[in-house]
Write a structure and sequence with these properties.
This protein has 213 residues and is of the alpha+beta class. Among the domains are: 36 residues, no CATH class; 36 residues, no CATH class; 73 residues, no CATH class. The chain has four helices and twelve strands, in the order ααααββββββββββββ. It has a two-stranded antiparallel ribbon. A two-stranded antiparallel ribbon has the order 2-3. Strands 5-6 form a two-stranded antiparallel ribbon. A hairpin with a 5-residue loop joins strand 9 and strand 10. The chain starts with a helix and ends in an 8-residue tail after the last strand.
Length: 213
């Protein structure tokens, strides 16, 4: 036993305290954390999970046995809740593999748990949307073609650089503030450079399988 542990044990012996506190200190000196922490001792008697499980997990209590009139339990194990169980980390979020995911922006769970976007797509307001292959600094106007003359790079309100069909008239497009207000497969994209008199953003449909021009 090193000098630090001896000092800790000496102080515990000198100070007034319960036998439980003294036992915990002694156990810690011997490197027995299971006896040193009251919460672990409680779990050993109840089979509960310590620390508590996360929002998307449930506790499977440990098996218990009796020996010499005393109850001994294995510590519980946290198990993932069923996929799709509601959780609170995001709006309309759900559990997946023990983690709370955001179906509005998670490429692996876009729109619903288990629905994955392709490698060249981003999740925009719950819909898989083509990801731009253009430089991140590119604006819609003048833009760079991504497969067809009408398909150009644009910056969505969610900060994604996406390829959109940019064949429109400024006087005939409605404004938008987020992609959540657009139809499925559309993104709210900045068009202020094209439309100096407004609107600054409008909903535009994504290009099909965009490729770099």
């Amino acid at each position: 036993m090193d000098a630090g542990r001896v000092d800790a044990l000496s102080r515990a012996l000198a100070a007034p305290g319960s036998r439980r506190a003294l036992a915990a200190t002694f156990a810690g000196s011997l490197g027995l954390p299971g006896l040193a922490h009251p919460e672990d001792a409680g779990a050993a008697k109840s089979g509960k999970c310590k620390p508590k499980c996360g929002e998307c997990e449930k506790c499977k209590k440990g098996d218990c046995d009796k020996k010499d009139g005393k109850k001994f339990c294995k510590k519980g194990t946290c198990k993932p809740k069923s996929a799709g169980t509601p959780c609170t980390a995001f709006a309309r979020s759900a559990c997946q593999n023990g983690t709370c995911v955001d179906p509005a922006a998670d490429e692996g769970n876009c729109g619903s748990v288990g629905t994955a976007c392709g490698p060249s797509q981003v999740c925009q307001a719950g819909s898989c949307f083509p990801r731009s292959t253009c430089p991140a600094t590119t604006q819609l106007c003048p833009g760079i073609a991504c497969g067809t003359p009408e398909c150009k790079c644009g910056l969505s309100t969610e900060g994604n650089i996406v390829c959109v069909s940019a064949n429109f008239l400024c006087s005939a497009i409605p404004p938008c503030t987020t992609s959540a207000s657009c139809a499925a497969g559309e993104a709210c994209v900045e068009v202020g450079a094209c439309c100096p008199e407004g609107p600054t953003h409008t909903c535009l449909p994504g290009c099909t399988s965009p490729t770099a021009a």
